[in-house]
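FORM 7B: Structural annotation worksheet

SECTION A. Query
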Amino acid sequence: MSDSGERKRSPSVTTWLMVVLGLGLVAGFAALIVRAQALPTGVVEVVWDHEVCAHCKMHIGEPGFAAQLQLEDGRVLNFDDPGCLFRHLDRDIGKVRATYFHHVHEDRWMSEDATGFVRKEPTPMGFGLGAVDRSEPGAMLPEAARRHVAGGSEVHP
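SECTION B. Predicted structure
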C-alpha cells in the first residue's frame, strides 16, 4: 500500500491489448512506408518536356537521347543526353544501382550492360553520342563513350 492508503494496480488486460494494438499499428505503418519506398526494378517513366536534366538542367524532350541513373539511396536522376550522365558521374552522387539509356532510333530503354554508343549529330547537348545495342557494328562500350565525353566539350557547362 502507498502512503495514501491506495493499492497499486497492475495494468489491466485492456491496457495491454491497447499497447499491443498500438505497436502493431506502428509496425504496419512502418512496413507500408518501407514498401512504398522500394527501389525501382526497371526504368522509371520520364515525363517528357517537363522533367529537367540532373546535370545541365535543360528540359528532357528528345527521348532518343535520354538516360537515367538510379542510386542506392532511392534517387532517380534523368538526363537529356548520354554525355550529361557521363559528366554527372564525376560528381559525388552516391552509389549507382542501375543505369539505363534510351535507344537512339527505337522507343525502348537498355541497361548499361546491353548498351553501346555510336557517333550521332546533332545531340541535345552536343556530346555527339547515341545509344544503340552493344552488338551493333562499330558501337563503342560505355567506358569508351565516357572517355569520349571527358575529352570533348559540351554546349553548356
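SECTION C. Observations
Confidence is low (pLDDT under 50) at residues 153-157. The radius of gyration is 26 Å.

SECTION D. Sign-off
Analyst initials: ____
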